């Protein structure tokens, strides 16, 4: 055994002393691997038959020296995958990031059904020959770590070529939301390429190099892919940073991207992707809570002087319309919350999907806020016009998009009834008072002077109404026409009755405004309010 050790040591030392790569010569590589195989076989035989620990230790030291040289050769082979200028495509453009002035960004990838051959032909086979020897020598962990280390530059550069960075969360933690949106729009296509192409390619390469050694293949793969996990952490950062309503749409985009990835994700990353989706889903739920709080906090006393649509109404309804385009994603993200009805009471007369309940609740909060604002006017008719305008705006928005499907006919009917209620309050507060002037203290047999006085009072009142309310607005032309007809039907019959009483007194020379002229006044008022 001592002679064998000396013979192997002399043979192997010739290779270890070479200052050039052994794999630059296939003959040297084959001879060295043959010597390593003989050394390993000898050690295994000694372990079973010899108790000479000193001799065994000498063999082990020689094997360790061989493994370290194999490690260097292995790393050199794997590192041949680095992308240099010889591989650059003329379509690849330079990144504009100041910190990566030498990184070139690849054009968008549309075909995901590809595997990248990261190593030149035959290199993976040679690397596998080395890996098998290192694992047999007990250096499998070192081999896996060496693989990951050798692949790091390639993986980092691959990420950079997608226009993103593994440490995006740290780099942009103090950035404005506008800049974060730009980074999100880079991150989404990048993460798709990573999980559709780069990670499957890396898994394929690991399986080739560590063929027959699944545990070491998994270790090498997981360690090499750490930069991809760091890239994923950007989604966690955004989920925490995006707590204002405006962040919803980009977070939904990220959620959709992760959903797409789940169908192809390597098992090693499935837990991380699932957890990230849940994190983004919680963020989506939190955004709608933030929207509700935003509506409740909007106690501004700055109201439209003409009773028009309030900015908060436009904002909320346009927001919900835009969100409705992602209703299926939002429904999925919110589903886990609803079982819990403390925050959003589910009305059995409404669609009971979690998203429908949330949207309906938000609009209910908005209407409650608008009703509170209407009282700030201190003038009931103007407050009613304000509510009518906002209510009609809400119903038009709902009926004009998928919100109608989401919220359902019953909910729309409830809002329409509210608008009808506000119309009735306006009619009573304004024109009810007008006809009371004519009806109060006028009865059959009243003197002409009393009737004339009431008519004059009525005309002055109507004139004042027209002067004030012509400065108000009705945002819906049809609503203005309907209101005009309703007021005419309420006022004109009573006015005709008063004129009839005046005629019955047989007052000589008594003059009065014709009912047609009063009707014209009413029509002109509502035309002025509708701006047509």
TrEMBL record:
The record ties this protein, via InterPro entries, to: Cullin_repeat-like_dom_sf, Exo70, Exo70_C
Q: What cellular component GO annotations does this protein have? A: exocyst
Q: Which residues form the signal peptide?
A: none
Q: Which GO terms describe its molecular function?
A: phosphatidylinositol-4,5-bisphosphate binding
- Keywords of the record: Exocytosis, Protein transport, Transport
Q: Domain named Exocyst complex subunit Exo70 C-terminal: which ranges? A: 186-519
Q: Specify the domain of life of the species encoding this protein.
A: Eukaryota
Name the GO terms of the biological process aspect: exocytosis; protein transport
Q: State the family named in the UniProt similarity comment for this chain.
A: Belongs to the EXO70 family.
Q: In UniProt terms, what function does this protein have? A: Component of the exocyst complex.
The family database entries (PANTHER family) matched by this protein are listed as: EXOCYST COMPLEX PROTEIN EXO70 (PTHR12542), EXOCYST SUBUNIT EXO70 FAMILY PROTEIN (PTHR12542:SF115)
Which protein are we looking at? Answer: Exocyst subunit Exo70 family protein
Phylogenetic lineage: Eukaryota, Viridiplantae, Streptophyta, Embryophyta, Tracheophyta
